[in-house]
Structures are given as C-alpha cells and as structure tokens.
Amino acid sequence: MSKVFVNIGLSLDGYMAPEGMTMENWDKPEYKNWGAKWGALMGWIFNQRYFRENLKLGPGGETGPVNDLLRSTKERIGANIMGKRMFDGGERGWPEEAPFHTPVYVLTHEEREPWVRPGGTTFYFINDGPEHALELARESAGSRDIRIAGGADVIQQYLNMGVVDELEIALAPVLFGGGRRLFENLCEAGPEFRIDKVLDSPAATHLFYVRQ
After folding, report:
1. Chain segment 177-192, per-residue pLDDT in tens
2. Is 194 helix (H, G, I), strand (E, B) or coil?
3. Euclidean distance between CA atoms 98 and 90, whole angstroms
4. Sheet holding 4-11, edge to edge
C-alpha cells in the first residue's frame, strides 16, 4: 500500500514560511525581508542538479547524496496534496511546466475545473475535505506514494487525521522569529514518530522520521 509522507523545509525555530510571505506581498520580497529569509531556508535546493533539471533552470548544479535524495523523493511520488494558499503562490511562481508531473489535489472552498499543465501535472480542486482528497490521491498514485506538500495548515490536518507515515524535514540553520509554524494546532494524542536516518550537509540537515 502506498505511504503518505510530508516533505518540507523548516527553519531552526520551526517555521515553514517567514512572516510577510503572503499573496498580498508576493511582489514585495523586501517586506519584512521575507524574500531573503525564504532564500536562506530553501537556497540549498536550488544548488542541486536534479532540481535544476526538473524546473528547467539551466545546466550545472551539485551532484552527490543530497541530489540523489531529491531524485529518489521525486520518483516515489504518485500524487500530491496541497492547500489553496500554496497553490496560489505556485500558480504565480511555477513555470508553465509545473514541477510535479503527477495529479495534484488542491484543498479549497472554491469550485474550479481541473487545470492541466504540460509535463503530466493536473491540478484538481477538492471542495469536500481532506479525506476525499486523500482517497482520490490513493487511487491515482497506485503503488507509488502520496506527498502532503503544504502548507502548514494542510500538513496539520493530515497529522491530526493520523494518516502521515513519514516526515522528511530539511532543517536549515536559519531563525525566522515568526511566520507560519509547522507544528501547531495538533491533537494532543497525535501520532508518534521515530528518527530513521539523517543526512547532513552544510546548508541543511535532512531528517527522516517514520511513524511508530
């Protein structure tokens, strides 16, 4: 059976996104310095060859264990689930060939027809809750796995549902001091995880947890 996993970047003080990183300020990265903070959090990924190839950012990039990690994570994904806030930012920021190449189920209260992009990505807009989105994702993923892509509120919903099997966290040595925190609004009796492996690099420590 396919697994459900979270794969995200996180600041040292537990934030997925810095304060000020909103759609209202998308074109103002200097607002509360969110652009520089986001770059410090996720800069490691832009240096990896596989990531650059996937987004068609041009030649070059590092190879090695972190690059291999990105490739293996990408290849295991059969479907993605995300929230409307993440989709709205990506709709403006992703290239025409969105970097998923799978079905993507977007949790939203808005009704919208599926959005088909080049390269195998189709966004489906789900109005009737995270349970239905997961059911559809399992059907389309087949034997491959389901990634809960974000944002924080969506990840929290699936953690509270008790369906997340694995956490992959790229912990960057930066402090935000505010923003969108990952581990909030969780049930007291949430699932327990144990550390499975660690991959260290200068720009981020990659932590892998599996559910007990």
Report:
1. 999 999 988 887 667 8
2. strand
3. 9
4. 115-116, 122-126, 103-107, 77-83, 145-150, 4-11, 166-172, 205-211, 193-200
pLDDT tens figures, 157-172? 999 999 999 999 999 9
Please count the residues of the chain: 212
Backbone angles phi, psi at 78, to 5 degrees: -105, -15
Q: pLDDT-derived band of residue 95, with 50, 70 and 90 as boundaries?
A: confident
CA dihedral over 98, 147, 122, 130, signed as positive or negative:
negative
Query: Which residues is 17 bridged to in the sheet?
Result: 180
Q: Give the three-class secondary structure for 167.
A: strand
Distances (CA, A) of 145 to 56, 81, 134: 24, 11, 11
- DSSP class of residue 203? S
- 104, 81, 83: which is closest to 153 by C-alpha? 83
Q: Return the pLDDT at 58.
A: 85
What phi and psi, each to the nearest 5 degrees, are found at residue 58?
Answer: 110, 170
pTM above 0.85, yes or no: yes
Q: What is the pLDDT of residue 49?
A: 94
